[in-house]
Amino acid sequence: DVNRGIDVTYNHLNRPTKVSFGPNDYIQYTFDATGAKLSEIVYKGGKLFAQRHYIGGVHYEGAGNDNQSGANNPAPPASLAFIKIKEGRVLKSNGAWSYEYSLADHQGNVMATFGSLRDVNVYKACMETYDANKQATEESTFKNIYTNGVNRRSGLFNNTKPSAENPNPTWSIETNGAYAGKEMGPAKKLPTTTAGDRVSTGDHINMSVYAKFITPTSGANTDVLVGSLVGLATTTFGISSGETAYSGFSNYYDGGVGTVVANSGAPKAYLNYILFNSTYTSYQFGFKPVPSSTFEKLELDLVVPGAFDGGSIYIFTTNESNYFTYFDDIKIVHEKANPVLQVTQVSDYYPFGVPFNTWSKGSVSANRYTYQGQENQDDLDYNEYAYKFRMHDPSMGRFMSVDPLAEKYMYNSPYAFSENRVIDGEDLEGKEWTATKDKLGMINGFKWDAENAFDHNGALKEGYYQAAIFFQDKNTWQENKSLLGDLRDDGGHNSFNLGAATATVYGPGGSDDVTNYKATTYASDQSKFGTIASGAYQAVHANHKGIPALRLTSLDNVKNTQIPTIGKNPAHTDRVPGYADGVDIHFAGRPTKGQYFTGTFLSNNRISGVSEACLLIDNDKWSDFISNFDGVEKIGIGLRRNGDIPEDWYLPLNNYMPAEMDNTYFVPPPYIPKYK
């Protein structure tokens, strides 16, 4: 991609094995022999930045070496991050599992994720000034970045990694115990005034900051502060004499500091915390010394003991030496012990998949399976979706490699995404467009609407149905099969084109009362009889040659049995447009013991499976099929043929949406006629 400066290397399966943004910035992919992705490794600035490994739906993730000292701190191995399931993800955090659910639209586009998860608050500061709003947020979140009109930033050293929004990071916080006002660096207290950050038993608090020091050329003194540090700490946190918190610091802080030791040859500079109980009569102290003259990560981890429930924790950086010590990229992660139902991520999408109005909680691993449920490759601003067979660039609305089924779709560009149909369908694995489907895998026009189905008298409203049938033709009808019924002992079970269509029954028993049946929707001899057109109809109970059946009627009038056909009906050429009368849904059968079973048509001593334009159901399952409609007066009917939606019908925009409710009813499929 010359425009984006990307060079892509493909394997023999047409899958990308390396996406290069430059000599030191690239993504490496590994696939198995079937094309399934096994790993994704990201390098940034020549160093390992992120790693992901895939075993089916099981995802392992690991950070890269985010430390500038490189080989001194090799990247940790990837660990189990989550398991992808149909409903969303099962997340693992601190040894515990929790479910995160995805709310998607009819195309599978994830609009929101939510779950009963351990609430996590993240506080971080990179000390940069490129964005005024972020700068103000950092300065209000942490003490000692910009305090009392004094900017504590220094441009001498920096640990923050470059990014697209901040390509030239510059700042860190400079500390030195020999300079008034520079004895302490970034600091924060929990809880703040926000109720959600209360410190509770079992909470997990992780604290980290990057730090480095410079050894003075002469007069080095690792401890220039003499006396108590209480005044520095209480001043930083705005604690006045006489407050309970002040007594806590006065009674315990110096005692905690007495346990602090520095690394050999290093200054007395630290990441610290002091945890108090709710009455400030008990404390727990922790520290991590600055170890090196290059930026390294200082990290403290704490699980709040039961005795400190409802207490307060003060987290701060200090420098008691005359060594200039620099702190950068401070981060505090406060994970609550008790799960809370919460939204973790939301997004909208432009038609080809570019996200907008996005928001993420940030404390939960981001769900990358978003547009049409495909994984977004967002590292290094790649921003393409990884379908099974090809990568899709939503900014262009095109795939980045040739369609593996290009010869099957000669009319279509081999790079076109979803045949440019991005409203009523989705792209199937990067190979071909397919209409949106319901939970049984059927193209569907029905929608749950139990809350609005009844009027104030409890009567079912016009246009609602207690049950419905959706016929989906598969374009596999063969003429010779319609004429192979013969008088065979198998009763024609393997003929009549049964299975050339599927009839999905949405019964009156609730959201799980959904069953598929083999069917056929074409006339046995299309040169003699009409074939029903795609659309929306109704059906009522009737008899077909003395056998129980369902009779199709118009959507407007249950007494109108004239059903439109594809083109003119050869049996009634005088009718314009074509239509058929007495179109029934029945089973395919044959003469047995002198009884003329429904669904047969005798022609030249051969038995056909369709009476004129009727719709056939598998005879072996007929009893089960027709029993779905016991006590049901009117039934909603939808019929769909691929590539054969008449111009005077709209396609459905909304599909089958389950709602776990009693007395569930259905609205007809939303094929709304333009003209009547």
The amount of helix comes to: under 10%
Span from first to last CA? 51 Å
Number of helices: 5
- Major sheet characteristics: 16 strands, antiparallel
Based on secondary structure, the structural category is mainly beta
Please give the number of β-strands.
42
**Cα shape:** elongated
Overall pLDDT metric: 79
What's the topology here?
Elements: E1 7-10, E2 16-20, E3 26-31, E4 37-44, E5 47-55, E6 58-63, E7 79-85, E8 88-93, E9 96-104, E10 110-125, H1 132-141, E11 146-147, E12 150-151, E13 153-154, E14 172-175, E15 184-190, E16 204-214, H2 230-236, H3 244-257, E17 269-276, E18 283-289, E19 296-303, E20 312-319, E21 324-349, E22 355-360, E23 375-377, E24 384-386, E25 391-393, E26 398-399, E27 425-428, E28 432-435, E29 447-448, E30 467-473, H4 479-482, E31 501-506, E32 514-520, E33 535-544, E34 547-553, E35 563-564, E36 579-580, E37 584-587, E38 601-603, E39 606-608, E40 615-617, H5 622-627, E41 635-641, E42 666-667
Parallel strand pairs: 30-41, 37-40
Antiparallel strand pairs: 1-2, 2-3, 3-4, 4-5, 5-6, 6-7, 7-8, 8-9, 9-10, 10-21, 11-12, 13-14, 14-21, 15-20, 16-19, 16-21, 17-18, 17-20, 21-22, 23-24, 24-25, 25-26, 27-28, 29-42, 30-31, 31-32, 32-40, 33-34, 33-41, 34-37, 35-36, 38-39
